[in-house]
Specification:
CATH superfamily of the largest domain: HUPs
Structural class: alpha/beta
Number of helices: 14
Largest sheet: 4 strands, parallel
Strand order of the largest sheet: 4-3-9-10
Oligomer: single chain
């Protein structure tokens, strides 16, 4: 029985999809004005692990992950400059070119991390009509109002507006952002924008569209509500995003969607915690806003980073250090070596079956709110077990990797180029062994290991490999 920690109820609940065997899943995607950092990469890997877990448990998942390419300002509180326009000025290209550039980079990054592609990847700029349709409904129902500068959602009309966040609005600052940007005609300081007009600080906005109320562009929050409705319906099974989205973005999504559609928006809210660097917030100013390119430049594979992400639960913070990545790289290499050894020492895989006892343990882990670190521990139990035959081990490992996504079934033995001096030492050692002079043979083994190679004697002869 799958249980999920629901942010909305603050309880671990049995998962009951709207339609038996099917899951509608919306994941908040990136704002594509910059290369996504490792925190964003962790978020998409964690989502991927949950999708893989659901599919392993025989659910048919429809995943929608959006691209925000307009309307997300430099503050989540509807203040500041549009991030895409900021990126356009920085890169000296159009907002559309900015979006394409960073979508392409993001797509390649998440492919390198072996994440399953979303079935639908909508861009906000392609769904302006759907947003306007929802705004029209909100205006007609009295949940929204118009000022000279924008159309706002009136949070005083929303039922249980702060249920997701649990925040006390009276204790919050009354108006985020600078007074220069604030609209004095807002009814409530926390009312949020549905549609910005091409006026005031946005009079020179680059990306604008005609609307029944005046030329302008959508607010950030309405985008996800409109796209989720179009592709998944009025009510979703699961909506996932980072914890930073709880107090503003997701709170506003719920308010506008439920007010417009008249039904519950999402049944299960999942939120992943942040990735820190050296126990501090990732920041460009301190040079710690690392990207996947930074990882590759230091000779780490994206799968080593994925392995690192497997080691912490999605609801737990995780601390990134280069030492931690080295450890993950070593652990992954050890795992890969074990798998290759099993492949080399099997008779006929078709005769074996997945071990049901370990599979049950694995399922119990992922059914407990997607406990991937525990699932990884079960995998290692299989690897280290002396009770399973090689064929059984290998099939069980491959089965678990359907969730973990480490491409273990694609491993091939690498051709190791052994230097001539090492080959000469091995040849001399073999001669000493033939003469049963094991003292001299052991001296040569130590010399070979000192030079960075390991040797293993077996029925097929001496096997040599480069040390990790």
């Amino acid at each position: 029985m799958l249980k999920i920690q629901n942010t909305l109820t603050r309880k671990k609940e049995e998962f009951k999809p709207l339609q038996e065997g099917k899951v509608s899943f919306y994941h908040c995607g990136p704002t594509v004005y910059w290369t996504q950092h490792l925190g964003n990469m962790r978020a998409v890997v964690l989502c991927d692990l949950i999708i893989r877990s659901l599919e392993y448990l025989k659910y048919d998942v429809k995943l929608v992950r959006n691209y925000t390419d307009v309307g997300h300002l430099t503050s989540d509180e509807d203040e500041g400059e549009d991030k895409l326009e900021k990126g356009a000025k920085r890169d000296n290209i159009t907002p559309q070119e900015v979006a394409k550039k960073y979508i392409d980079i993001y797509e390649q990054d998440i492919k390198d991390l072996n994440t399953i592609p979303a079935e639908i990847k909508p861009r906000a700029t392609n769904h302006i009509k759907e947003m306007q349709d929802m705004i029209k409904i909100l205006l007609e129902k009295g949940f929204a109002y118009k000022t000279e500068l924008a159309i706002y959602f009136d949070i005083s009309k929303a039922k249980n507006y702060t249920k997701l966040s649990g925040q006390n609005l009276d204790k919050n600052i009354t108006d985020a952002g600078s007074g220069e940007v604030s609209d004095k005609n807002k009814k409530n300081p926390h009312d949020f924008v549905l549609w910005f007009f091409k006026k005031g600080v946005h009079k020179n906005a680059i990306q604008t569209w005609k609307s029944p109320w005046g030329e302008g562009f959508p607010g950030w929050h309405i985008e996800c509500s409109a796209m989720a409705k179009k592709y998944l319906g009025d009510t979703l099974d699961i909506h996932m995003g980072g914890v930073e989205h709880i107090p503003v973005h997701h709170t506003n999504e719920i308010a506008q969607s439920q007010s417009a559609n008249g039904v519950k928006y999402v049944n299960y809210w999942l939120h992943n915690e942040h990735l820190t660097v050296d126990d501090k917030k990732m920041a460009k100013s301190t040079g710690t806003s690392y990207t996947l390119s930074d990882i590759k430049e230091k000779d780490f594979s994206p799968l080593a980073l994925r392995y690192l992400f497997l080691q912490a639960h999605y609801r737990s913070k995780q601390n990134f250090t280069w030492d931690a990545l080295v450890s993950a790289k070593t652990a992954l290499k050890n795992l890969q070596t074990k798998v290759l050894e099993l492949k080399e020492n099997i008779r006929q895989v078709s005769e074996a079956k997945i071990n049901e006892e370990y599979k049950e343990k694995f399922i119990l882990a992922i059914e407990d709110d997607f406990n991937i670190p525990q699932a990884l521990a079960v995998l290692w139990e299989v690897v280290k077990s002396d009770k399973l035959i090689n064929e059984e081990k290998l099939l069980t490992i491959y089965n678990f990797d359907m969730v973990l996504g480490l491409k273990l079934d694609e491993l091939k033995q690498e051709e190791t180029v052994i230097p001539k001096e090492i080959l000469a030492l091995i040849d001399n050692r073999d001669k000493f062994r033939e003469l049963e002079d094991f003292t001299e043979a052991d001296k040569l083994r130590l010399e070979i290991e000192r030079l960075g190679y390991s040797i293993e004697d077996g029925p097929k002869g001496t096997k040599v490999s480069k040390k990790l």
